[in-house]
Design a protein that fits this description.
- By secondary structure, the protein is mainly alpha-helical.
- It is built from six helices and three strands.
- It folds into two domains: 62 residues, 2-Layer Sandwich (Herpes Virus-1); 127 residues.
- Helix content is 61%, strand content 3%.
- A hairpin with a 5-residue loop joins strand 1 and strand 2.
- The N terminus and C terminus are likely disordered.
- GO terms for molecular function: ubiquitin-protein transferase activity; zinc ion binding.
Length: 235
């Protein structure tokens, strides 16, 4: 029991990780399913999406993310610009690696589906070739009437019709399975493309979020505007 209490206390003292940048959360907000994000990260995400990136629950003005009371970042140590840059790079690499692993799994699944498609196609060709079935049966039975179809027993004709009907039913079922597999392949390819585009977009946005880019602009505005004036000087 003491070990259980100790584990619970330890889990409550661990830093919360943002589901987007995978770093320690800053100014935390949560969705309705209690997934935690940095406020900056979720703001960037919601510019192009309207769902939670973790559980896909809709995030709208009527159902927004809520701030965590007491979730401050004042106790976090001050890190240099170089350290923050390396941290961002590491987080991006982790995200990229995670997407690549998921893409590899999807590609393997696509290859497995392709092999199943080929196997089903070969089965269809075999089923749709009644002559091959008849020849195989003739080679096994060596029935004397097989060389003269006109002398075949009517019961044999009925039996072959039943076999052909069964083969057609199997063909239709296999054809439906092939169509479903092809549709699944298309969806997987679309998901792969979407993941790649989202990965590139997140990488570009995080690269452009360096705080150093805004310092020169602020300093130039301060120089261009004289003390006590509301607008820059004009010549």
């Amino acid at each position: 029991m003491a070990q259980t209490v100790q584990n619970v206390t330890l889990s409550l003292t661990l830093p919360i990780t943002c589901h987007i940048c995978l770093g320690k959360v800053r100014q935390p907000v949560v969705c309705t399913n209690n997934h935690v994000f940095c406020s900056i990260c979720i703001d960037l995400w919601l510019k192009n999406n309207s769902q939670c990136p973790a559980c896909r629950v809709p995030i709208t003005p009527e159902n927004p993310c809520k701030e965590i009371i007491g979730g401050t970042s004042e106790s976090e140590p001050m890190l240099s610009h170089t350290v923050r840059k390396h941290l961002r790079k590491t987080r991006l690499e982790l995200l990229h690696r995670e997407y690549e692993d998921e893409i590899d799994c999807l590609q393997k699944e696509v290859e497995e589906l392709k092999s199943k498609n080929l196997s089903l196609e070969s089965q269809i060709k075999t089923i749709l070739d009644p002559l091959a079935l008849m020849q195989g049966s003739q080679n096994e039975d060596k029935h004397p009437l097989a060389d003269n179809p006109s002398k075949m027993d009517p019961d044999s004709v009925v039996e072959w019709k039943k076999k052909l009907r069964t083969a057609n039913e199997i063909y239709e079922k296999v054809k439906d399975d092939v169509d479903k597999l092809k549709e699944a392949n298309k969806k997987l390819k679309l998901e792969n493309g979407g993941l790649l585009r989202e990965n590139l977009r997140l990488k570009a946005e995080v690269d452009n979020r360096s705080p150093q880019k805004y310092v020169p602009h602020t300093q130039s505005e301060a120089i261009a505007t004289p003390m006590g004036c509301g607008s820059p000087l004009t010549l």
